[in-house]
Amino acid sequence: MEDKSYNKWDITTKIFSALLTIIVIIIGIYQYSENSILEFKRGFYSTQLEQYKKLTEITAKLSIIDPDSVKTSSFTKLKNEFRICYYGTVNMVSDKRVEEALINYYKSLEEFESKIIDSDELQQKALNLTQACRKSILKTWKLDTEKEYLLN
Q1: pTM
Q2: Which residue range is the domain that position 100 belongs to?
Q3: Res 6 pLDDT > 70
Q4: Which helix (H) or strand (E) holds 117?
Q5: Half-sphere exposure for 130 (CA within 13 Å, toward CB)
Q6: Which helix (H) or strand (E) is 133 found in, with range?
Q7: Mean pLDDT, residues 125-143
């Protein structure tokens, strides 16, 4: 009788050990998955912030250029940098609002270059783009824009 009792205890212990091992493996896989997602998000957020910063710096520089300087090499260089952002990584990380503001700025930049609009209008489009980038960042980081930053 004692052998049967020992045998049941031995089988129960082995089953419990196997179940515990499976549970630990499942938890490990879950944690790995969560960490992978977190690392991806962290990389995306970092890239988005970096690209928005670069974009807004370029648009600010373009927006304060003297209208008579649109034929200079410095303007052409900045415009080319803007185009790289426009056609490049910014489109991978931007949301719809930033995309629309980016398109509006690009059109305004062309109009500024053709002297259809003045620098004040171009500067306003740059501010609109900057605001769109800021709201996009706050949305990405899930921050309450109304309460924490008093944005409209």
Answers
A1: 0.73
A2: 45-149
A3: no
A4: none
A5: 15
A6: helix 119-140
A7: 92
